[in-house]
Amino acid sequence: MKPGTKAPSGRRHRARAPRRAARPGFLTLAVFLAVASLVTGYLVLTRTDDTAPAASSGKGNSAKSSKDPVWDGKTRVLGDGSTSYTGPQKGELKAVPLKPGEKPPQFVVFSWDGALQGDDKLFSHYREMAKEYNAHMTFFLTGIYLLPKSKRDLYHPPLHPVGSAAIDFPTDQHIRDTLEQLREAYDQGNEIGTHFNGHFCGAKGGGDWSVEQWKSEIDQFFSFVENWKTNTGYKDIAPLPFDFKKEVVGGRAPCLEGQANLLKALKGYGWTYDASSAGDFQIWPTKKNGLWDFPLELLPYEGGKYQGLSMDFNFLYNQSDGETQGDAAKFAAWEQETVDSYMAGFNRVYYGSRAPLFIGNHFENWNGSIYMKAIDQIVPKICTKKGVKCVSFKELAAWMDVQTPQTLERLRSLDPGQSPDWSTVVK
């Protein structure tokens, strides 16, 4: 895909989720998951002290440190000057225990695959929207979006020729613009994650990669984002105000492929979650291989006739059969259908189990930009509601990490639409 333009085909995204018949209820699911014991406490989020030390995580062959040195107020430029450590991220949220009988927050995570500031300026648009509605979002950066096309041979993708990718390399201006947005997004409390590099799907894509090949893809991501000054030659841009090795704690694999070997490869990188799977109905998350598994979820499509994944490309597949610009006469109806699905999924858990809602999208103008317009509609409706916290995956993982196993099992025993007596749950 050429940065700033629509995708020419569906090859670079998650294939359509199969249409599933809607269930009249979720009792069977509750019985299946009901292995919980009594709860000893829940947590809510409050803002951290900006002077607190940040946790450190090692990547690749580097050792993981248990604690970062106490912030001394001095910026430490790293490597070739592409990045720096400027202290703990400001405005980040931390977990504190819920009071007895208190509902868990309704977490909502808006995430973006392949974060790039293209000609449509969508990165800056959603960064500004997050700020306006006191939300944090997760921006999954593709590594080669900071690598000039002239340096494409630095990329050695698994099972593919040197310098190749399933998406286009960025223009020089797009690199400069993306660097600016990464800086501002981080400064406003948003998360920078990874969408890896070449966006290979299907044959010879992530699903065919070995553990060592996934490690190579991960290490190359860090190399590209930590050495953009060397690779671009830009001397007039200040270092990014964060250390990728500390701040990147999760990602989403292209097309949601290859999670099994990816999770094995991630051991030792200090990550806390992975968002590379397609889940079932909206259920409180669990861990896989020691990392939180944050899947795309099934939401009610077409008034609940069937369930589909909570991602723009899956709406596109079900509405226009994969055509990125379908019948314009149907755009308005499709946009409303998308909004209705998001809101139905939100309301199901907001008035029910309070399981997190995960919405994954791309910076694209598919079907007349109706999927971007749908997000523009639902962010103000959702993030302003009482008890809702629009957070990043990183923040949600931190919240989940401080729950007791008993608490998590009890939460998972709830049907998505089940509204329990919280006084019997939170004690």
Give me some keywords for this one.
alpha/beta, three-stranded antiparallel β-sheet, disordered N terminus, five-stranded parallel β-sheet, 12 helices, 427 residues, TIM Barrel
Helix/strand/pairing class, anyone? Answer: alpha/beta
Topology as H/E string?
EHEEEEEHEHEHHHHEEEEEHHEHEHH
Q: Give the CATH superfamily.
A: Glycoside hydrolase/deacetylase
Give helix % range.
Answer: 25-40%
Number of strands: 15
* CATH overall fold name: TIM Barrel
Tally of domains: 1
Largest sheet: 5 strands, parallel
Named CATH architecture: Alpha-Beta Barrel
Question: Would you summarize the structure shown here?
Answer:
The chain is globular and about 60 Å long. The chain has a single domain, classed as Alpha-Beta Barrel (TIM Barrel), CATH 3.20.20. Mean pLDDT is 85; it is low at 1-67.
What does this structure look like?
The protein is globular and about 60 Å long. Mean pLDDT is 85; it is low at 1-67. A hairpin with a 2-residue loop joins strand 10 and strand 11 (291-293). The protein has 12 helices and 15 strands. The protein has a single domain, classed as Glycoside hydrolase/deacetylase (TIM Barrel, Alpha-Beta Barrel), CATH 3.20.20. The protein is α/β, with parallel strands linked by helices. Strands 6, 7, 8, 14 and 15 form a 5-stranded parallel beta sheet that branches. Strands 1-13-12 form a 3-stranded antiparallel beta sheet, covered by helices on one side.
